[in-house]
TrEMBL record:
The keyword Protease applies. This is Carboxypeptidase A6. Residues 109-404 form the Peptidase M14 domain. The keyword Zinc applies.
Length: 418
């Protein structure tokens, strides 16, 4: 049963530079004492000048927060006044969501891990000509880590694209997109020449839920859980940030060494079995995997390496052009604007990220999507926005994949955002 959480997500406006120092101290104190759950940015160290900060807190702590904000003259606005009501909208009528056939599966609602895995088995059975389901390992709590191989079977060695969703448990729109992508690709294969070409010439390895333990926990206990569910020998806090656990500048800037923090890097690189399983698979197929795509939320951004430093990657022009084309394709659906660029400068510096690891290990195109929105709903993106969000993201991923089939031609007039 989902834990009742009558909390508020809201945004602090840290505008006057004169109060930013005290505001950051205030945020440090609130976060240290676990009064607030940081949404954007996800670490106190990333709060800077003229910043806005999205946080969520328990209702019982609101008076304490009001007093602290008033004392520091920090402006704020409440985005959702009844958070529990919004949570229940996304988890209600669980029993009615158990579908017996693929034709009844509703892609415009969020699904539990069990429902997603049943859907994977069903799709694997009904689309065996284009789909193959397999496990690459087990999670900390012993759950299988399923991947779908999507593409026309061929004896020839085809280029491949890896797509993972649900690295951070509370980002439910990610797994919703991975399911949408599979459904749309299979449907479009019949009549869309571009999609037919993609599935004939490429293989897509799709992992709908990377962090299976955390995702399950976000459905049953804590809707805003982010990390994995591994235990720590010295602390009662559980879990590791699966996007700070990769062996590339591990546990440096943008990651925390404290097990209770949301950006905890883990006791060592690849400590999480989920990360180890994906690393092993990608290394095994490194000669064929040409693009790595990880789907996150929220911020409306398309990011590429480097995350851990301010520097241009060697094939910057080609990757920048691919990002530009993807964001342009996304914009063409509903006019939604996405920023794009190196993760370090476009979002923030973070070490031990999957896109940096993928790039360093020979995958020339490594991207991380931060899907809708920009803060109003945050991790509680309404189900009514699943369709448009997945539709526009589908166009972007399709543009990236089509780019792999031709030689890179860099657009020197690419804009910083559309």
């Amino acid at each position: 049963m989902m834990t009742v959480d009558f909390g508020w997500p809201f945004r602090l406006f840290l505008l006057p530079s004169a109060i930013i120092f005290s505001a950051v101290l205030c945020a440090h104190s609130l976060y240290k004492n676990r009064y607030v759950d940081l949404w954007q940015p996800n670490s106190v160290s990333l709060i800077g000048w003229n910043a806005t900060v999205d946080v969520h807190m328990k209702r019982r702590d609101t008076q304490r927060l009001h007093a602290a904000l008033k004392q520091e003259r920090i402006k704020y606005s409440v985005f959702i006044s009844n958070l529990q009501q919004e949570i229940e909208k996304q988890t209600r009528l669980r029993s009615s969501r158990k579908r017996r056939s693929e034709s009844q599966y509703d892609y415009e609602i969020y699904h539990s891990l069990e429902e997603i895995q049943r859907w994977m088995f069903e799709m694997n059975t009904t689309h065996s000509d284009l789909l193959n389901m397999f496990s690459i390992g087990k999670s900390y709590e012993g759950r299988p880590l399923y991947v779908l191989q999507l593409g026309k079977r061929s004896r020839a060695q085809k280029k491949a694209v890896w797509i993972d969703c649900g690295v951070h448990a509370r980002e439910w729109i990610g797994p919703a997109f991975c399911q949408w992508f599979v459904k749309e690709a299979l449907n479009l294969y019949r009549y869309d020449t571009a999609m037919r070409r993609l599935l004939n010439q490429l293989n897509f390895y799709i992992m709908p839920v990377f962090n299976v333990d955390g995702y399950h926990f976000s459905w049953t206990t804590d809707r805003f859980w982010r990390k994995t569910r591994s235990k720590n020998g010295k602390f009662h806090c559980r879990g590791v940030d699966a996007n700070r656990n990769w062996k590339v500048k591990w546990c440096e800037e943008g990651a925390s060494s404290h097990p209770c923090d949301d950006t905890y890097c883990g006791p060592n690189p690849k400590s999480e079995p989920e990360v180890r399983a994906v690393v092993k698979f990608l290394r095994k197929h490194k000669k064929r995997v040409k693009a790595y795509i990880s789907v996150h939320a929220y911020a409306q951004m398309l990011l590429y390496p480097y995350s851990y430093k301010y520097a241009a990657i060697p094939n910057f022009n080609c990757v920048e052009s691919a990002a530009h084309n993807a964001v342009k394709a996304l914009y063409s659906a509903y006019g939604v604007k996405y920023r794009y660029g190196p993760a370090s400068t476009t979002l923030y510096v973070s070490s031990g990220s999957s896109i940096d690891w993928a790039y360093r290990n020979g995958i020339p195109y490594a991207f991380a999507f931060e899907l809708r929105d920009t803060g109003y709903f945050g991790f509680l993106l309404p189900e009514t926005l699943i369709n448009p969000t997945c539709n526009e993201t589908m166009r972007a991923v399709k543009a990236i994949a089509l780019g792999l089939l031709k030689k890179c031609h860099t657009d020197t007039d690419a804009f910083p955002y559309i």
